[in-house]
Structures are given as C-alpha cells and as structure tokens.
Please model this.
Amino acid sequence: MASSHSDALVLFGVTGDLAHKMIFPALYAMVKRGTLTAPIIGVAFPKWSLDRLHKRATDSIERLGGIDNERALQSLFVAVQVCQWRLQRSGHLYGD
Model:
C-alpha cells in the first residue's frame, strides 16, 4: 500500500486545554522522531500572537516531560501558523 502525505495538520482549539495538556507534547515528540513534516495550522477564537502561542506550547512541553531537544522545539515553532476565526451574527465563520 502506498503511503500518502498530508498538506497540513489543522488543529482546532489550539489555545485550549486539550492542546496544552496533550497535543503540544505529542507534536513535540513527533518532531523529535522526524515523523511530523507537514505545517501545522492552529485555529482558535481568541486572538493570540504567535509568540503567546509559542510560550503556551513551551509551558505545555516543559510541564509534561521537559525540553531535551531545543532544535526540535524550534522546528515545531517553524511549523506552527495561527489562524483566528470569528463568528459573524449570521452564524458563519470567517478568518484570516
């Protein structure tokens, strides 16, 4: 069976508790193993800067097991992009 690759990994709720407790440490482990090669698009309602998201991800990884590979952490940050979504009165989502 041929393997296929994703164009991107989209994470909805990237500023939430699940991302903080579970997803960021898992992504960090995948980068360390070399299995995460797609860009990551984080989607969230709060308008956070990329720097604020990086600080939250770093805190998450440090709390779960520590950072033992600074290069992998920086590679994870290169892969992460942020997209803020807003809910219009009509019920439709739009974002940047």
Residues 86-93 have pLDDT under 50 and may be disordered. The radius of gyration is 14 Å. The longest strand covers residues 80-87. Residues 11 and 42 are 5 Å apart (CA to CA).
